[in-house]
Amino acid sequence: MNPVAAIALLALRQTLRSRVVLALLALLLTAAFLLPLAIRHDGTPEGLIRLHLTYSLGIAGFLLSLVTLWAGCAAISKEADDNTLQLVLVKPVPRLHVWLGKWSALLVLNALLLALAGGAAAAGLHAQLRRGGFDPAALDRARLTALAALDTIHSPLPDIEADVRADFESWRARNGIPPGVREDALLDSLRRARLARLYSIPPGESNTWTFPPPPSLPAHWFVQFRCDASVPGAARMEATLDLDGFGAPVSRDFLVTPGVQQMLLFTNPPAPDTASSAAPLAVTFRNHGTHGATLFFEPGDGLVLRHPHGTFAANYLRALLLMFLRLALFAAIGVTLGTLFSMPVAAFLGLVLMLVLQLSGFIRAAAQADRQTFVANVAAFGQAGHAHDANSADSPAPSLAARALANALFCAYRGTWLALRPLLDYRAPDDLAAAARIPPGDVARALLQQGLLLPAFLALLSTAVLKKREWALPQLS
């Protein structure tokens, strides 16, 4: 038998004998079947679908990641502590085969558990939809909106740099710039203020979003939007959406719910084979009614177009593949940590990694911030005894030590983000719950990075350590 397969089979047998696998399987089935039953949804099939996908797959991914990392750490380090690894290393087995065998065993185990968890989550979801007593029309809409793979088209932001520069020169001409305010900070403030004006709709007025034409016009379109209102609790926020460029103008009246994401389905456009897709698509949002409230939209994401592209089953399979490839990288990291360190140290470092991943949103935002702005704000915040504004000249200049510490923090955040980016940018369950289409290119990139390149680098590193590290010989009685 091939040495890699023999080592993998032996490691898989040892793992399957462990009660940890049975406990993990019970937790996965609980997350797939029982947990969604214990949490109330909003009473719609869309809400039920999102609840099942978010909690079932999210918790299953977290449990599998944690156990995979722990099992990877124990794969080599525990055998070294028990003096059983040395019996393998004295045989004519390449060190690389030892690492590949341990890693392959974890891949097989994860594939089995992930298939069970994914199949159980899908079966539980369809069973709940059948027993939910939903209206057939609501189920048909859910199949288009939630049980779908939707592509999203964003409207490009307008070019406002010339206007922002003109506003800045106007402030400068009338000496309106406060002393000590940096030019880049003021330009950023003016840019955000102008965008806020462009994406606000006062009562009785309208705004038009222009979208690039898609390759073909689908039969169903969704206009998804979310806005806030200047009058909280207004009773009747009436609005109208006008769609143009879809083959025939379409108009629809509806009620706005501020602070809630809404999605309107349009089926009036003609069939794709008779519609022209050469012209840009335009969506006009008209704010009217008796509420007297101004509506505010987030630039770029406040109003988007979505349309079906592919099936839910294919999208679900791509999400599971992304989860499996992420687990493959966790397995490689765990086996490498177990090669470099003893079991307690490797397990501790694995726990630190999981804690860092829970702060992925904060780390991503800090790492992608402008270095100068980050350092100025953090250094000013660190000045004891003052409430500072980093853009004001009235605040004392931060000390050299505060600026050095701020630079060190920025480098730490940026380095962590760059080193763990394949793990920090993971969004498969969230995209699936939001019915966002997962492109096949994302799966291909994950296969290259998380399934091949990064594990290959970790395998070579572990092989070098296995060759150079001195191992204590087992005590013979």
Computed over alpha carbons, the radius of gyration is: 28 Å
Oligomer: single chain
Largest sheet: 4 strands, antiparallel
Identify the overall geometry.
Answer: globular
Please give the domain count: 3
Number of strands: 11
Characterization of the model:
With 477 residues, the chain is α+β, with helices and mostly antiparallel strands. It has 3 domains: 3-149 and 312-350 and 439-468, no CATH class; 161-308, Jelly Rolls (Sandwich), CATH 2.60.120; 359-435, no CATH class. The protein is 58% helix and 12% strand. The strands form 3 sheets. A 4-stranded antiparallel sheet has the order 1-11-4-8, with helices on one face. It has a 4-stranded antiparallel sheet with strand order 3-9-6-7, with no helix packed on it. Strands 2-10-5 form a 3-stranded antiparallel sheet. Helix 5 (95-131) runs antiparallel to helix 9. The radius of gyration is 28 Å and the shape is globular. The two termini are 31 Å apart.
Topology diagram in text:
Elements: H1 3-17, H2 19-38, H3 45-81, H4 85-89, H5 95-131, H6 136-145, E1 150-153, H7 161-173, H8 183-198, E2 200-201, E3 206-211, E4 221-225, E5 227-229, E6 238-244, E7 250-255, E8 262-266, E9 281-288, E10 295-297, E11 303-308, H9 312-340, H10 343-358, H11 360-367, H12 371-381, H13 400-419, H14 421-424, H15 428-433, H16 440-468
Antiparallel strand pairs: 1-11, 2-10, 3-9, 4-8, 4-11, 5-10, 6-7, 6-9
Helix pairs in contact: 1-5, 2-3, 2-5, 3-5, 3-9, 3-10, 5-9, 5-16, 7-8, 9-10, 9-16, 11-13, 12-13
